[in-house]
Amino acid sequence: MQASFDTQCPFCSVQCKMRVIEEKHTDRRPTYKIEGLPNAASEGRLCIKGINAYQHALSRDRLLKPLLKTDGGFREISWEEALDVVADRFSAIQAEHGADAVGLYGGGSLTNESAYALGKFARVALKTRYVDYNGRFCMSAAASAGVKTFGLDRGLTNPLSEVTQTECIVLAGTNIADCQPTLMPYFTKAKENGACIIVIDPRKTKTAEMADIHLKVKPGTDLALANGLLKVIVEENMTDPSFIASRTSGFEDALSYVSSFALADIAALTGVDEADIRQAARAFGRAATGMIFTARGVEQHHDGHMAVRAFLNLILATGKIGKAGCGYGAVTGQGNGQGGREHGQKADQLPGYRLIENAEDRAYVAGVWGVDPADLPGKGVSAYEMMELVHKRDIRALLVMSSNPVVSNPNADFVEEGLRRLDFLVVADLFLSETALMADLVLPATAFLENEGTLTNLEGRVLLRGGDRTAPGEARHDWRILSDLAARLGKGAYFPYSEAEQIFEELRLASKGGAADYYGITYERIRREGGVYWPCPDPEGPGTARLFERKFAHPDGKAIFANAVHGEQGEMADEDYPLVLTNGRMLSHYLTGVQTRRSPKLLARELENVLEIHPRTAERYRVGDGELVRVASRRGSMIVRSRLTADIREDTVFVPMHWGGVQNVNKATNPLLDPFCKMPDFKTSAVRIRALNAADLAALDATEG
Predict the structure, then answer these.
(1) Which of 673, 374, 339, 261 is nearest to 526 (CA)?
(2) What CA dihedral angle connects 35, 40, 43 and 46, to 10 degrees?
(3) pTM of the full predicted structure?
């Protein structure tokens, strides 16, 4: 007997389509076959994570009933009791300490419908201003830079299909080969067509291996490097004066600044040879078409917003936007990192990219929701700042949905200590994550095979994911959990949803006329067309595949150059902490690993976390290959196994982000926040390292035992 389910990969922002075919056998457990289905982004390709994603959805570790913490651990309870507990505790805490004493913390893997419902639940059911999500750590620097530069933030300004015909591509701080591998054929095809590919990364990653030019930048100096590239482009007359004059403003200030420093100083600061900077600048400046992509390597810094704006200066100076083969792409990390921030899950936003502090925006959305605009709270704070308020006990209760903040936040020991101070913590998840294990109540949520809804991929293309498989046990959709809680809080009339499409229909109306206008998109249309780009204001009109062809989204129609002043990296190495720690992803795991470690085939590829270190650096600190090493910063330490590689800078070490506990790299990372977007400086932390000796290992064994 055979059953099949058409769905989408739950992991990265490409959102590859797939078919899961289940072969049922009378004498043994079912077997599964996975087929890629063509869609406009991945063209039917699947990576190793997508092929094995079904395994975590079928895991025996799945949560099947609500769990209430007791002195002896957790005990199963009914949904009725669970909902009563949440409503009673939230109501009591708010009655004593005010509406803002309860916070909500969402995730970039939630569907658009669930993200919309979460933001609405915060503002209408709880009337708290404290709501944000883990996407704050994903794209907030690129998003804020896009808004300031172009007047609008969307992952890519032009379709992926144009990559293959682009003459020069800059991949800055992105390792697409490991993080979005099904996109790699676009870049390899571009290279076959003669494109020059420039990779900016402190490591020689699999992506950097295909580069014509690899700029091995010192972590935290991307802003300075981008300024150096602009300096060469200006001095060697590779700008587009007509485009600058007619379609931009602020160039003179940017020009004045890049004229004020010497390229030799940029080379010294970034660790990139002056000749290599010139070579890269000439390749991009002289190309007739070009695209720049940034990701977390550029963005996760205390100056990430301005670093992205410096790269956008390169696009504006050369006029490479708004036409075929030209544009900018922020390579979204999470599956719905793009859509998740468009519809009210962020502290300052309402659906459609409206702003909660804007009176007109508040009035419009309040009208859709049927509430008084005066009853909507003001803006809250960013995800990490919420953890600071938890630590101070300004936030006394927290609902975490589809996220694992005790692992994913910087300064993780501080965050864990704060969560332990909460009066009440409730977590909705598939598994007992590190955060769920700390919760007073855990609610079982549905997985991607079971949860229908829309997600917006890195192109800004809205896709519809099927959810035909029956959920195990008593697992419920995230949006249904919120609706049921709203009913318990006496706000059920505002959440009358019985299916995801109902929520999307309301989302369409709430986004109408906003920057992220989904009004012209329907489930039926997505099914018919395979996906629709936003903005799409007209149900009968096309979505917008290429942005800014005639004008930018600022009132005057012009893009704005940034006066992007560079300085030193966020945290400098010194005598006590002589190395720079940076972090990132690996091919076989995703985010904090809660899902991928439930896939046996993915877990087998990487059983434990690693420290990538240059052999000469390892020799200097007496670290052998494969040894356990303690990596310590001013905030905390982790223990990981060394992996010697000449592909990394000698002054830099790299640790992936997919493990919690003693292997959690975020015990050491820096919570210094970007002043514009509140992105933490994950990528530059000063550390020291030491190989563990026999006594250390014995003590570690005793602790784990």
Answers:
(1) 339
(2) -50
(3) 0.96
Round to whole Å and give the CA distance between 413 and 419: 10
State the Cα–Cα distance between residues 386 and 693, nearest whole angstrom.
39
pLDDT digits (tens, 9 = 90+) for 606-635: 999 999 999 999 999 999 999 999 999 999
Contact 5, 20 (CB under 8 A): yes
Rounded Cα gap, residues 250 and 260, in angstroms? 16
* Strand 196-200 with 213-215, pairing: parallel
- Which tens digits make up the pLDDT trace of 123-135? 999 999 999 999 9
Whether residue 474 has pLDDT greater than 90? yes
Q: What does the angle CA 542 – CA 158 – CA 589 come to, to the nearest 5 degrees?
A: 110
Query: Dmax over Cα atoms in the chain, in whole Å?
Result: 76
Residue pair 284/170 in contact (Cβ under 8 Å)? The answer is yes
Residue 166 tokens read as 């682009």
* Interatomic CA distance for residues 218 and 208, integer angstroms: 15
Instruction: Give the number of other CB atoms < 10 A from CB of residue 268.
Output: 13
DSSP state of 445: B
Beta bridge pairs of residue 398 = 103, 425
Q: What residues have CB less than 8 Å from 153, skipping those under 6 apart?
A: 142, 143, 144, 146, 147, 330, 353, 515
Measured CA to CA, the distance from residue 292 to residue 425 in angstroms comes to 42
Q: Which strands form 327-330's sheet, in the order they lie side by side?
A: 213-215, 196-200, 168-172, 290-294, 327-330
| Residues 121/485, Cβ–Cβ less than 8 Å | yes
Residue pair 290/280 in contact (Cβ under 8 Å)? The answer is: no
156 CB burial (10 A radius; 0-12, 13-18, 19+): buried
| CA distances for 394 relative to 99, 100, 203, 421, 423, angstroms | 11, 8, 41, 11, 11
Question: pLDDT tier at 569 (50, 70, 90 boundaries)?
Answer: confident
Q: Which residue has the tokens 């078409």?
A: 289
